[in-house]
Amino acid sequence: MLALKLVTLCTLLVAFSAQDTKEPVEIISEKTFANENGYNFEFKTSDGVSRKEEGQLITVGDQQGIGVKGSYSYLAPDGLQYIVSYTADDKGYKPTIRIASDNNS
User: Fold this and answer.
1) Closest Cα partner for 71 from 80, 82, 63?
2) From CA 93, how far away is CA 2, in angstroms rounded?
3) Which of 33, 36, 88, 91 is deepest in the core (most CB within 10 A)?
């Protein structure tokens, strides 16, 4: 659960720091699904931010928790689109960061 909170906080900080306009940001698309075994969601905003995540119940020893995997992307002040893919589980938070090429944007 701590990993999920950390991922959410990091995403919000990145989204807020990436904003260089005073115009309101609008949600362009959004999907959410949740049940007793997990969840998934995705959204895109008018300022170029997108996020996709899924979480599933995992059991480690006799403890249950949530394993999370997902990605988010944003347009940085340097004009490049950064894409962060991650997993968060009993082994910790593991991000991979890349810069989108023009062909993948």
Assistant:
1) 82
2) 10
3) 88
Q: Is 55 exposed, middle or buried (0-12, 13-18, 19+ CB in 10 A)?
A: buried
All residues at 6 or more sequence positions from 25 whose CB lies less than 8 Å from its CB, including other chains: 19, 45, 46, 47, 49
Identify the residue whose tokens are 């115009």: 23
Asked whether the CA dihedral 59, 63, 65, 67 is positive or negative, the reply is negative
At 53 the pLDDT is: 97
Sequence-ordered alpha helix ranges (H) in 1-105:
2-18
Sheet holding 50-60, edge to edge: 27-35, 38-45, 50-60, 63-75, 81-89, 92-99
Give every CB contact of residue 69 below 8 A, 6+ residues apart in sequence: 53, 54, 86, 87, 88
Mean pLDDT by 10 residues, the chain (105 residues): 55 59 86 93 94 94 92 93 95 94 57
